[in-house]
Here is the input.
Amino acid sequence: QVQLVESGGGLVQAGGSLRLSCTASSSINVIGWYRQAPGKQRELVASIISDSRTNYADSVKGRFTISKDNAKNTAYLQMNSLKPEDTAAYYCAASSSTGWFMKYWGQGTQVTVSS
Here is the structure.
């Protein structure tokens, strides 16, 4: 069982930046961030694989950057040029050390972008 601990959400004005962190209790293969706004489906924001390949939602390309520190089992989501439509609960998710399915989830952290 992998535990995921998130931090870094908060309230920011449009155009501002936030950085989310997610620390896994053990090694994982894929880690990423999903978000869910009220009344909307959960969507993938960004993910990164153990070989550092990344994937982004079109809506955040050029504004968000996902990275990881393998030694710390920690992934980061740097969010720049935030927009009110980025407001959502953000969830960290991860696979097992050899898998691809996001089977572990964090508790979520709220990101609110004011206009």
The chain has a mean pLDDT of 96.
